[in-house]
Amino acid sequence: MTEISERAVVRRLNDRLGFGPAPGDLEAGVDATVRRLLGPGTDPAAAAIAVPTGLEPPAKANGQDREAKKQDRDAKKQDPAAKKAANRQRAAQERKLTIWWLDRMVVSRTAGERLTWFWHGHFATSNQKVRNAAWMLAQNQTQRTLALGRFGDLAQAMIVDTAMIRWLDGQKNRKGSPNENLAREFMELFTLGIGHYQEADVAQGARCLTGWVLREDAATFQRRRFDTGSKTVLGTTGDFDAKGFARLALAQPASAGFVIGRLWFRLVSATPPDTATVARLTTAYGVNRDVRSLLTAMVAEAAFKDPASSLVKEPVEWAVGLLRALRLRPGKLEEKEQTKLLAGLRGMGQLPYRPPSVGGWPAGASWLTTSAGVTRLQLAQQLAKKADLSIVDNAADRVSAVGALLGVDSWSERTRSALAGVKDPAQLTAVAACAPEYVVSG
User: Fold this and answer.
1) pLDDT digits (tens, 9 = 90+) for 139-156
2) CA 59 – CA 212 distance, rounded (Å)
């Protein structure tokens, strides 16, 4: 098997475990890059971005008692203006939350933020239904805290997460009146995959998940709503609760291969790993389901250095990488520019906190539609106009200079010829950012 160059491996590491290289990152070696991205150190640059405040739902923000809140909600149902005002407030809170996370992505220096983004797509939860930015923030922070730790800890946290319970109707699941949504999706999409559970496991698993209700601040457990008694789930019998159900799913032989496959598909290659590779990665994953150890082994595999292991960048990855290369921070853009940024992401089909379904976002060629390409160019033009491009403007070879700016190792002759005809540095940068060499993580 031929391999890409060491510099290309470094670029690939920055693309797959981060959001593209920052200036100077491509000068580091492979080992140093892996240590920075996957080492035990913290990410002070990302942590320095202040967590947004004021994300309380409209009723809570008013500081009313329960009866007054009920009257307020009833009034809003009858008053279109009040309902619109509440919706505007929710939208403003979600916007603040989204800009904050994009800021963290742009400045991040470890794999923690990139894996938080991965888990957001894996445990996909949309604020379109949750309608509570504070709950979405809480889920996001949990995923960040546990992103590179033990997958079992993360899975057990997600199965009782407030936003997840709202998203998959867990609050409707009570003794004598089961709702199977969360139990089914937890096995099918989060831990095991299709074909590794039976319908009886869904029904019995739903019983394990009863008792959770939604309150203003968080989901809480009410034992009187919990279905006590013997349950048989995935071949094991006992009086299991939510976390017990999660442990049963993770103990299944299929679970390790499923999680490894999901990470591989998004971070290494669309071609599934062979049996021998899965065996090696399963050993690295270990009985503790250690995500950091798994990723360290994954990027050491020969397939990670295979020229064929290219991946199309998701819109958020592409946009954050471009912002990083251009030294632009979403939170420091003018409000109208922030609006255009979010509109561009929405136009390309991917906006944080808004996955289209519990299955998350698509991958690969799904991002290469004509309409997405037009939106990508428009957003690239908008961002390039806000950047200091003197390093490109003053270069004798502008095409090579824009490649260095974006972290592109080399241009194909076809791309270089097309870029050579673009004189304006902002337009050159925008077109280069939409070239295959940048849109695809090669």
Assistant:
1) 999 999 999 999 999 999
2) 22
